[in-house]
Amino acid sequence: MTTLHETIQSFLDYILKERGYSVLTVESYKRDLEQFSAFVSQNYSDAAFEEIMKKGVLRAFTFSLGELALKPRSVARKIATLKSFSKFCMKQSLVATNPTKLLANPKLDKPLPAFLTEKQAQELEGGDHGDPRTQGPVEAARNRAIVELLYGSGIRLAELHSLDVGTIEYKRASVRVLGKGRKERVVPVTQQTLDAIRHYLDIKKMPRAHDAPLFSNEKGGRLSRRQIERIVARELSRVTQQKKKSPHVLRHSFATHLLDRGADIRAVKELLGHSSLATTQIYTHMSKEHLLKVYRQAHPRAALAENDRGPADFTLPPAL
User: Fold this and answer.
1) What SS3 class is residue 111?
2) Do the beta carbons of residue 41 and residue 115 sit within 8 Å?
3) Which of 15, 86, 195, 200 is the Cys-Cys partner for 141 at CB 3.0 to 4.6 Å?
């Protein structure tokens, strides 16, 4: 007889081996389903699998999440996990209908992604890219190359983390990355990025085997994601006081600046590796600087206002 524990394990194996989900994503699904399993053990220990996978049990679990004072986004993720798990159960003919269809998601705020201004992105190029107290020229060159690559290509942290020396294609000015679902795509990079990577590899005292990690630590091993996050946070601290200082800020900046300068949203979608255009549309917000530029160019009285008061006197509403 099918058990919940066995089915959860089969589901995790399926999304890892057949769907190609990342290890981190699978771990997230595992945590959510283990929480659901613990709830079932505590409240429905004698129930058969068919009884567990019914709307009443699933709804009771989602109600219990509210009592834990979880953030709406965390609750929504757990519900999404249950929906994926239920679809798998249907595919395996373990349930006749999808019991999660009527589960309601909590209302989520949709904050705009944090990004740098173009001026801040330019300032990021200069200055000291390492901590002179603990790091030498190799680390400084590596840190600059990491920042240049993230901003110059818009790739994800996981994609940058997995890059090898051989994935950089200098003649084509591009990089081959392995995105979500193990889908490979070729992303163009700037000449500035290529120069930063070349400089880093030139002063680095390590072999340049094609399968060697592109960004390594002092022992030659691949930098961990956490190490990359710390490097980026330190670099961003030089140019911005905003709270968010993750690699995704550079990805957001890449997309925002392309769209601000007139890039087609479908092209940006392909560059980012999004499967849906709806995901890319969040970047169609406009920066304050771009709005101010449009205002000055388009409004007949804008130039007069600027001459009379100076650009510093013009402020946009806080909501923007």
Assistant:
1) coil
2) no
3) 200
Q: Categorise residue 69: left if φ over 0, alpha if ψ from -120 to 50, beta otherwise.
A: left
Catalytic site includes residue 274: yes
The residues, any chain, with a CB within 8 Å of residue 294's CB and separated by 6 or more, are 286
Record the tokens describing residue 219, joined without a space: 């022992």
- Which residue in this structure is represented by tokens 């790739």? 155
**Is 251 marked active-site?**
yes
55 carries an active-site annotation:
no
Q: Give whole-number Cα distances, 237 to 49, 141, 245, in Å.
A: 51, 17, 7
Q: How does pLDDT run across 1-21, given as a tens digit for each residue?
A: 568 999 999 999 999 998 888
Nearest to residue 167, comparing CAs of 202, 217, 214?
214
Instruction: Exactly one of 199, 238, 248, 285 is catalytic; name it.
Output: 248
CA dihedral 233, 124, 256, 110 (to 10 degrees): 20
Instruction: Report whether CATH 3.40.50.720 matches the domain 118-284.
Output: no
- What are the extents of the domains in the chain? 4-91, 118-284, 288-320
248 is catalytic: yes
Is position 71 annotated as part of the catalytic site?
Answer: no
The per-residue pLDDT for range 58-115, each reduced to its tens digit, is 888 988 887 787 888 888 999 999 999 999 999 999 988 888 887 877 777 666 678 8
Is 142 marked active-site?
no
Tokens of 129: 């890219």
The two most distant CA atoms of the chain are separated, in Å, by 81
